[in-house]
Design brief:
The structure is a homodimer.
Chain A (H helix, E strand, L loop, with lengths): L9 H23 L2 E5 L2 E8 L2 E4 L1 E7 L10 H13 L4 E6 L10 H7 L4 E4 L23 H10 L2 H9 L4 E8 L6 E3 L13 E3 L2 H9 L3 E3 L6 H6 L5 E2 L4 H6 L2 H4 L2 E4 L8 E7 H6 L2 H34 L5 E4 L2 H21 L1 H23 L1 H7 L3
Parallel strand pairs in A: 4-5, 4-6, 9-10, 9-11, 12-14
Antiparallel strand pairs in A: 1-2, 2-3, 6-13, 7-13, 8-11, 8-12
Helix pairs in contact in A: 2-11, 4-5, 5-13, 6-12, 12-13, 13-14
């Protein structure tokens, strides 16, 4: 049935077709995803879901280790992969080894300035800028990995860490732990504190400072130079990490004596550093994902080192060219005295270091006493 | 400019209007979210985003502890909250205390049968059904928390655990660790292995089995009855956890002697249990979120116990009514001998237990030797 009134002008038809095309396009565009917008100068690919724009973030992460360096370099990869999986690709993090994008020891500055969004490193590298920072990593005769994690997450440590890094526009997260590091490789025997005199040892950071105060000569050298330096006699001794990493450098081939106990880095905590402006652009779910991925990587590194150091140690034990030696008590006592003096000095000079040390020391004394009747009592008793 | 040819029939107009309405409705419906569908009989609220239906999951979690019980009951809450935050509410988990939905010791069955999707408990509760299960929690003179996490995540332990639970339609995840548990509270002194004879001690599980073999009388009682049983002399001694939980039960008010070292549960790993059918309904991002939340809670519990046991221990140390005592060496040796005999028996009777024990024992011997020169050497040296 048609009548004359039922005829419409092309203008109406055109308007209807245009509206249909517009709505259809909107629908199809959303299905396809990918609306590109900018946020704080960063280009972000986004998709609109449930009426809320769910942005995609592409972050860069710089680290202080060679890419995929066993243990230390595994953690940032584990972290990045897990964030990608959990966010279903909404937050992707590209990991760079030390020197690839910025030098290994400029990770803190790069994150602070926003050159990159995230970094993986160790707090004690920044002790020139922040004298308190070694307490968030490891100090001589300090906390074991388990004790350190207790202080950070239930003893006020992490709050202090965040307070200290905030002026640098960085939020830190615990980023792995190697467990107790070994006392190092030596070309000669240490039978008393006198034997430290004239001993040239590669031992950087606070450990090196304390070693020098106890009579030794500390040297700082990158890992890549340790084998040759030890072989040619440029140094008499070096510490590195523990059997898993030490044997990878071949240190057992050039030094006869492997010393314990480690005293300078009893439970070094690594760190994930996130630029605060970048952090603030993330929705709450991606912030929670970052937090959980950091905690995952934090435990995972310790698990990896525990199992793999153990395996590497078995090989060393069967190596007739290696002699295991224990530092004499007077050496340990001299190093301990030097460490205490160092803490007194830096806390006298720096208010922030004093505040951090006060919290750390109260926890350390308590947990050490507690471990006398638990971990320590147990691991000694099971050898009976 | 109009001509006669440019007139169209109402049918075309109607078709165009209908198409416009349909596409607009589709767009608006998606914006509003909430399409309800069903999946495996569960009602799921869904939303369509990016062309993929993103389902909402509502899960139930049963546990073997009173709801929010400090430490043990904190972990499932931490896990559920983190999953909710990371998934932006797409996976919500409601936590039930022991006995609220199913009895405390029927968590495994409930997850196995799919009554609930997830559970939080301890593997050694199922040793009647699975003799190998205590090796995934704790056994006398076994692994510390750090060592246990190394075995599980880098020593083949988790793969074995999953293989053993698979016939029960369950996928397990490490779900927290208390650290070394204390030797317990005693009403009388233990000066030799002879003093174990006739001693009635609440000590359940493998620890109880070993305690009985060494001459004592082991009793199983729920935590809620320990205070009164100790006070009225129904039992002479009881273990529970460590200072944080023990003092919450008031055990220090009714027993004079607090014994160390703990020997029966040196690093108990709790467990998250996920029903495999429920697991398989999850998209990959939510599976990754579950995995990370479990690992977060796994470390978090140990951190909490380390810090809070330490704080509770400080109070006990200052309590003049408590006497700390160390088990004599002959008692430790007798318990150790009984434990070894027990392992020989269960592994001779059960092929699965033998396979698990073989992996566990090889790792245990290696890591114990390794800790002689690292953790153990360090914590003994720092007391010099």
């Amino acid at each position: 049935m048609t009548t004359n009134n039922n005829r419409y002008s092309p203008a109406i038809i055109l308007a209807l077709v245009a509206a249909l095309v517009a709505v259809s396009w909107l629908y199809v565009a959303e299905k396809a995803g990918s609306v590109v917008s900018t946020n704080n100068g960063r280009t972000i690919a986004g998709e609109i879901t449930s009426g809320i724009e769910k942005e995609h973030f592409e972050w860069k992460m710089v680290t202080s280790w060679p890419k995929n360096f066993p243990g230390l370099g595994t953690a940032p990869e584990t972290f990045a992969k897990l964030v990608n999986r959990m966010s279903d690709g909404r937050l992707t993090i590209r990991v760079y080894g030390g020197g690839e994008l910025v030098p290994a020891l400029e990770v803190f500055s790069a994150v602070s300035q926003g050159t990159v969004e995230v970094g993986h490193s160790a707090g004690y590298y920044w002790k020139g800028k922040i004298p308190a920072s070694p307490f968030f990593t490891a100090v001589p005769f300090g906390l074991t990995a388990q004790e350190m994690n207790g202080w950070l997450h239930y003893g006020g440590g992490l709050e202090l860490w965040r307070e200290v890094y905030k002026p640098f526009n960085i939020i830190p997260f615990a980023g792995g732990n190697t467990g107790v590091q070994m006392g190092g490789w030596f070309n000669r025997e240490i039978n008393s504190v006198e034997d430290l005199k004239g001993l040239k040892m590669r031992i950087p950071g606070v450990g090196g400072e304390v070693f020098s105060r106890a009579g030794g000569t500390s040297v700082t050298l990158p890992g890549s130079e340790l084998y040759t330096s030890l072989q040619t006699g440029v140094i008499d001794a070096t510490e590195w990490v523990a059997p898993y990493n030490d044997t990878a450098l071949g240190l057992h081939e050039v030094a006869k004596y492997y010393y314990y106990p480690g005293w300078h880095e009893p439970g070094p905590a690594l760190e994930f550093l996130v630029n605060i402006d970048a952090w603030n652009t993330l929705p709450a779910d991606l912030q929670a994902i970052i937090e959980a991925a950091a905690r995952y990587a934090n435990q995972d590194m310790l698990d990896e080192y525990t199992a793999r150091n153990n395996a590497a140690f078995m090989d060393l034990q069967n190596n007739p060219d290696i002699e295991f030696r224990r530092f004499p008590d007077d050496v340990i006592k001299a190093l301990k005295k030097a460490a205490d003096e160092y803490y007194q000095e830096i806390t006298a000079e720096d208010e922030v270091a004093k505040k951090v040390y006060t919290s750390w020391k109260a926890y350390e004394e308590g947990v050490r006493n507690y471990h006398h009747i638990t971990e320590q009592a147990y691991i000694n008793a099971r050898d009976l």
